[in-house]
Specification:
By secondary structure, this protein is mainly β. The chain has strands at 17-21, 24-33, 36-40, 49-52, 63-66.
Length: 74
């Protein structure tokens, strides 16, 4: 499931998602707006990427996986 939102701050979203972006995988927060996947980085100072979803594809066709847990060593 992809949350539809226009907010730019990812602090209260579900975790980051791996998305096929060209020949690469991007780890981003994902929104689906107007037939586009909006790929937002964790740091809102960086620009977002827009991925056009072909009419023959579903947005979920581009999602490779979701992150369930991130552990940071302190």
């Amino acid at each position: 499931m992809i949350a539809i939102t226009t907010r730019s701050c990812p602090t209260d979203r579900t975790g980051p998602t791996y998305v096929r972006h060209g020949s690469h995988l991007a780890l981003r927060y994902v929104d689906f707006i107007a037939r586009r996947l909006v790929l937002r980085p964790h740091n809102i100072a960086f620009p977002v990427d827009l991925v056009e979803v072909d009419p023959s594809e579903s947005p979920s066709d581009l999602i490779a996986g979701r992150i369930a847990l991130i552990l940071n060593e302190l």
